Amino acid sequence: MAHPMLLLAWLAVGLALAQGQTYPAFVQKHVDYPRTPVAPYCDVMMQRRGMTTPVCKHFNVFIHASEDTVTDVCGRGGTPVPGRNWQDSVRAFELSLCQLRGPTQTPPCRYQASNATRHVRLACENRRPVHFVGML
Fold it and tell me: Catalytic residue among 30, 58, 64, 119, which?
């Protein structure tokens, strides 16, 4: 019986954190345009963007498009998801996916990188993205 309550508690925490993120924080975590030429890409970018301390973030997506293009998803470049503050992009974006490797969340953080071209779903406030919801 405690397990469903724990799940609800984590969901509430996640929603609170997602709603609390700002546009500048979204850009810091998810926009890299043009794609930064570093190797290994995810190890370097996750550290540079502050997602490896005090613990390693499990998963992150970098969008390789300009801030204006990404922000446009919250306007005419996106379609609303009914009942939510989410917008689905009308175009596909070049993405870098960073997945934490290994069982530990403590630095040094090592990531598996992969690339994809996908539509994205973003949470928007005041016509600006504040949370990366997912890929479509």
Answer: 30
Average pLDDT, the chain: 89
Model pLDDT for residues 77-119, shown as the tens digit of each residue: 999 999 999 999 999 999 999 999 988 899 999 999 999 999 9
C-alpha closest to that of 93 among 41, 50, 36, 32: 32
pTM, to two decimals = 0.85
Chain-centroid distance of CA 119 in Å reads 13
Helix, strand, coil proportions of the chain in percent (round to 5)?
30, 30, 35
20, 98, 108, 107: which is closest to 61 by C-alpha?
Answer: 98
Choosing from 58, 64, 119, 131, the catalytic residue is: 131
C-beta separation of 81 from 48 below 8 A: no
Question: Can 119 be counted among the known catalytic residues?
Answer: no
**Domain range 21-135, CATH architecture:** Roll (3.10)
Q: Which of 95, 100, 94 is CA-nearest to residue 43?
A: 100
